[in-house]
C-alpha cells in the first residue's frame, strides 16, 4: 500500500510540473542558417511560384541553394515574431488606427507604429493578413534600436496611379527606408504597386508589341528603396506591378535577399526587379523575377555581389550597367551569377557601358546558367546608347576578367547568342569561356557570333563556334590597365 501511495504522489507531482511548465512563455532566439535554403526566409512563408512557372523539385536544372552565402546580415533580429508568444514588441498597425479596406489612407497609422517599434529592441511593425493597406509616399527613418522587423502579412499598396498621387509627395519613390542598420523586411503578404496607370503615361518610354515606343522620360516612383543602410534582409514577400523599379538599394552595405517573388507584365517599362548601386556585399538567392526590364541590374560602385538560384523571365536578363553615362567614372568588381535560369528574355547575362566613360568592370563570373529561348544570351556592349544621336568617343569603361562557364540552353535566332562589342580604343581582356553550348530554340544554328576588339580564350569548344575572339592581350594592355580596376 505504501508503495502504491508513493507512486501516486510521484505521478501527481509530475502532472503539476508539466502543467506549470506549459504556462512559461519563452522567447525564441532566431539564428540565421548558414545555408540559405528554401526552408528559412525570416518569418515569412516560402513564396510559391505561379503554377505555370513552378519548377519540378526533381528536375536537375532547378537551381540549388547557395553553398557559401555571404555572412550578411549578422543575426538581424534576435526574436522571430512568428514564434514569439508575447506581444510586447509587436506593433500591429490596426492598433494605431489602420483600417485596411484598400481605400482609406493608413499612412499615419504606419508612421506611428514605426515610431513605436523603432524605439525598442526587436520591435516588429505588423501589417496583419486579411487587410489591404493603402499608404502614400513615406520615408521610414532610422537609426532605430537593434533588430527592427517590418512584417507584411496582408497587402500593402500605394495610391492608384498618378491622378491619385498626393501633389505634395515625391513621384520618384514610394517606400523609403533610410539610415537603418539590421532591419528585416519580410512576411507572407504582397506589396502591390498599382503600376499600370503609370506605364501608360504619354511621356513614358513604352515598348509596344511591335517594338515601337513613345517619347520620355517622366517621373514614376520606385516601389521600395533602401538608402544609406546596412545589414539588411528582405525575404518571403511577393512584390508586383511597380510603377518603376520594384526594389532599389543605393549606398548600402550588407544586403541579404532571399525567396522573393517579383512580377510585372513583359511590356511594363523600366520595371527592373532588383537594382543595386554603390552597394557592397550583397546576396540574392532563391527568387523568381519576371518583369519588363532587367531582372537584376547592377550599377556603379557595387562589389562582392553573389546571385544564386534565381529564375528570370520574361525580362531583360541580368545586367551589369549601364555604366559610364555622361562621361562618368564607374567601378564594378567581384560579381558572381550562378545556378540561374533565364527564359524568354531579351538578354541573358549582359555588361553594358556608354562610350566616353572611365573606370573598370572586373572579376565577373557567370556559371551554371540555363538559357531558354533567350536573345543575346551572352553580351558585352560598350556602345550602349538609347538614341541614334550618340557620338563615337575614345574613352571607355575597361572590361576585364570575365568568365563564362557551363552556359547552356537555347537562343532566339533573331540575334546571335554571343555578342562581344568592345571599345575601339579600350579592348575587353581576359574573357574566358568553358562549356558554352547554345542551340537555336527554332530554326537553324547561327554560327556567326559577333566579336569586336575582344581578347580571351576558349577552354572548351564553344557552340556555336566563336572564331572571332582574339588570342592573348592587346598591345595597349598597359595603357588600358591605367583605367584602374
From TrEMBL:
Family: Belongs to the glycosyl hydrolase 28 family.
GO biological process: carbohydrate metabolic process; cell wall organization
A single GO molecular function term of this UniProt record: polygalacturonase activity
Keyword set, alphabetical order: Cell wall, Cell wall biogenesis/degradation, Glycosidase, Hydrolase, Secreted, Signal
Region (Disordered): 29-84
Record localization: Secreted, Cell wall
Biased composition (Basic residues): 29-39
PROSITE patterns, alphabetized: POLYGALACTURONASE
Pro residues bias: start-end ranges: 66-79
SUPFAM superfamilies attached to this UniProt entry: Pectin lyase-like
Protein name: Polygalacturonase
Listed Pfam families: Glyco_hydro_28 (PF00295)
Superkingdom to which the source organism belongs: Eukaryota
Organism field: Jatropha curcas (Barbados nut)
Record has Phosphoprotein as a keyword: no
Active-site residues (renumbered): 316
Residues spanning the signal sequence: 1-26
Amino acid at each position: 500500500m505504501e508503495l502504491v501511495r508513493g507512486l501516486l504522489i510521484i505521478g501527481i507531482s509530475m502532472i503539476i510540473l508539466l502543467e506549470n511548465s506549459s504556462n512559461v512563455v519563452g522567447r525564441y532566439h532566431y539564428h540565421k542558417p548558414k545555408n540559405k535554403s528554401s526552408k528559412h526566409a525570416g518569418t515569412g512563408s516560402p513564396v510559391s511560384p505561379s503554377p505555370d512557372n513552378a519548377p519540378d523539385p526533381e528536375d536537375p536544372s532547378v537551381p540549388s541553394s547557395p553553398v557559401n552565402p555571404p555572412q550578411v546580415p549578422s543575426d538581424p533580429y534576435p526574436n522571430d515574431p512568428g514564434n514569439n508568444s508575447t506581444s510586447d514588441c509587436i506593433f500591429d498597425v490596426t492598433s494605431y488606427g489602420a483600417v485596411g479596406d484598400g481605400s482609406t489612407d493608413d499612412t499615419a497609422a504606419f508612421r506611428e507604429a514605426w515610431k513605436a517599434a523603432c524605439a525598442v529592441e526587436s520591435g516588429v511593425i505588423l501589417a496583419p493578413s486579411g487587410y489591404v493597406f493603402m499608404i502614400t509616399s513615406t520615408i521610414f527613418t532610422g537609426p532605430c534600436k537593434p533588430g527592427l522587423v517590418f512584417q507584411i502579412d496582408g497587402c500593402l499598396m500605394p495610391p492608384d496611379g498618378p491622378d491619385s498621387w498626393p501633389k505634395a509627395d515625391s513621384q520618384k519613390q514610394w517606400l523609403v527606408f533610410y539610415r537603418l542598420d539590421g532591419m528585416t523586411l519580410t512576411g507572407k503578404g504582397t506589396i502591390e504597386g498599382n503600376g499600370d496607370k503609370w506605364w501608360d503615361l504619354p511621356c513614358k518610354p513604352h515598348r509596344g508589341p511591335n517594338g515601337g515606343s513613345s517619347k520620355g522620360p517622366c517621373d514614376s516612383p520606385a516601389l521600395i528603396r533602401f538608402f544609406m543602410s546596412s545589414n539588411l534582409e528582405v525575404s518571403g514577400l511577393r512584390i508586383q506591378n511597380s510603377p518603376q523599379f520594384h526594389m532599389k538599394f543605393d549606398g548600402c552595405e550588407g544586403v541579404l535577399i532571399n525567396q522573393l517573388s517579383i512580377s510585372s507584365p513583359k511590356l511594363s517599362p523600366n520595371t527592373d526587379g532588383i537594382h543595386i548601386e554603390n552597394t557592397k556585399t550583397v546576396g540574392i538567392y532563391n527568387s523568381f523575377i519576371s518583369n519588363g526590364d532587367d531582372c537584376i541590374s547592377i550599377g556603379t560602385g557595387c562589389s562582392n555581389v553573389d546571385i544564386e538560384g534565381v529564375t528570370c523571365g520574361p525580362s531583360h536578363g541580368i545586367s551589369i550597367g549601364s555604366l559610364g553615362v555622361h562621361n562618368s567614372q564607374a567601378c564594378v568588381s567581384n560579381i558572381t551569377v550562378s545556378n540561374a535560369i533565364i527564359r524568354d528574355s531579351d538578354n541573358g547575362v549582359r555588361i553594358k557601358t556608354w562610350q566616353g566613360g572611365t573606370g573598370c568592370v572586373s572579376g565577373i563570373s557567370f556559371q551554371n546558367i540555363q538559357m531558354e529561348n533567350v536573345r543575346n544570351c551572352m553580351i558585352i556592349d560598350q556602345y550602349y546608347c538609347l538614341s541614334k544621336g550618340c557620338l563615337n568617343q575614345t574613352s571607355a569603361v575597361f572590361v576585364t576578367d570575365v568568365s563564362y562557364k557551363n552556359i547552356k540552353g537555347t537562343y532566339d535566332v533573331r540575334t546571335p547568342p554571343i555578342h562581344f562589342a568592345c571599345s575601339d580604343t579600350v579592348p575587353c581582356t581576359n574573357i574566358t569561356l568553358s562549356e558554352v553550348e547554345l542551340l537555336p530554340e527554332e530554326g537553324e544554328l547561327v554560327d556567326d557570333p559577333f566579336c569586336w576588339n575582344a581578347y580571351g580564350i576558349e577552354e572548351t569548344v564553344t557552340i556555336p563556334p566563336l572564331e572571332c575572339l582574339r588570342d592573348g592581350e592587346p598591345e595597349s594592355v598597359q595603357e588600358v590597365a591605367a583605367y584602374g580596376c
